[in-house]
Amino acid sequence: MDEIWQQPAHQLARLIRERRLSSRETVGAVLDRIKRLNGPVNAFALVDDDQALRSADAADAEIRAGVNCGALHGVPVHVKDLLPTAGMRTAFGSAAFADNVPERDARAIARVREAGGIVIGKTTTPELGHKVLTDSPVHGITRNPWSPEHSPGGSSGGAAVAVAMGFGPLGVSTDGAGSSRIPASCCGIVGLKPTIGAVPHETSPDLFGSLTCIGSMARDVEDVVLLHNVMAGPDPGDPWSYGGRQSPLRLPDDPLAILRGLRVMWLPRTVNKHLDADVEAHCARAVARMAGEGAIVVDGPAQFDWALDEALVLMRSYQGTRFKGLLGRWRDTMDPTTVASIEDGGKLSAEALRRALFARTELLRRVLALFETADVIVTPTVSVPALPVSQRADQPLMVDGVAAGSLREGWYSYTIPFNPSGNPAISVPCGFAANGIPVGLQIVAPWHEEQRLVALAAALSHLQPWRHLWPSLAIGAERT
């Protein structure tokens, strides 16, 4: 049997429910690993050992008392430091919120607790979640466990690192332009961005115009399904949460059945001029494996407007409006790129915002048209494996000393469009670059077709298993 920290959440839940393992043992093992191994990677903004162990003891007492167990009973879960957690500081990676201790959980987190999950702490994020690299003036640099000189991506970088390191099998993330999928790709795990509203995000100040979804991160597809099922479903606080599928996701008995006759639109590039050779090779090989099991690969459009500029207007206007009041007191302590993002948003006109909203509608219609000839769209998650920790968000992507455009256009152009369009998307591992850093494949489906995504992800996991692969920083200490 694997060590406790190596066990998937669905297995831990079963062992705890059967009293073959206690929640105290499980949570204690994870907390011990964090104490010993978090230093080199810096995945956590906060770890609450005392609260976690008290909750674990309470979970064990309920087992002994014969209380009906939820799906996550006794299992450790970590939450990105952008989501409110009752009694646990939520600082948004910023000194401006260092004293912010919410009285209530976000609804998704409340559902995690109602299912018996033990919230052990908050994972790192860039300040205010404003960029796709995880570092902040408050918490410093979060590092990729496969190569500490590289970033885990962001903004859910801490969550991805924590999952990859065995610091708890389940990570609750957020995704506004790829923030779950990008770090999942960089860290070799699975990251699901559901259809907008599939998981209620009622704490957003802009419910009707939001780009951000609450996502699930884990090492395997079954655990992603488990966490998503717990958090998903209608809630009065989020109007987007109504009208979706009510049945829980499940993994098929025949993992390859989804591939037979599946129409796969393979898009190796969108607006990016450069695509790393290893990334292209591994992603193309995954598509070839699908075709070998009966999938039908269809051509994508030669020209397509992915509305990246308009998505930036939507994001910056949100940041500028929500956070401009912080600059007077906190400017000098903030990340310079945070300040620039807020200031850029404040300069946008009402007309620019309205045009971006029109463009969002047109993007949705164009994406809908793509699904007339395809069941899924498949792309690399990012064009280049994890970037160096020295990379700045406002600097261009550099490839062999040559500028390859902004990060938005050159690196993560694949993930951005499916936030304004609202489509569900998942990143799954599909190999390793020559430097040993993971490569991720993005799969996109029509609205509320998460079931299709997880079935296809399970098929790819069957064709190329990845769950047994651990970064050296995660297993090195266990070998000494």
How does this model look, in words?
The chain has one domain: Alpha-Beta Complex (Amidase signature (AS) enzymes), CATH 3.90.1300.10. Helix 9 (308-323) packs across helix 11. The two termini are 19 Å apart. An 11-stranded mixed β-sheet has the order 1-3-2-6-8-7-14-15-11-9-10, sandwiched between helices. The chain has a two-stranded antiparallel sheet with strand order 4-5. Helix content is 35%, strand content 14%. The protein is an alpha/beta fold and 480 residues long. The protein has 15 helices and 15 strands. The model has no long low-confidence stretch (mean pLDDT 97). The chain has helices spanning 9-17, 23-37, 49-64, 107-114, 157-165, 181-187, 221-231, 277-292, 308-323, 327-330, 336-346, 350-370, 407-410, 450-463, 472-479; strands at residues 44-47, 76-80, 118-123, 135-136, 140-141, 170-175, 190-193, 213-218, 263-266, 296-298, 376-380, 398-399, 402-403, 425-432, 438-444. It is globular.
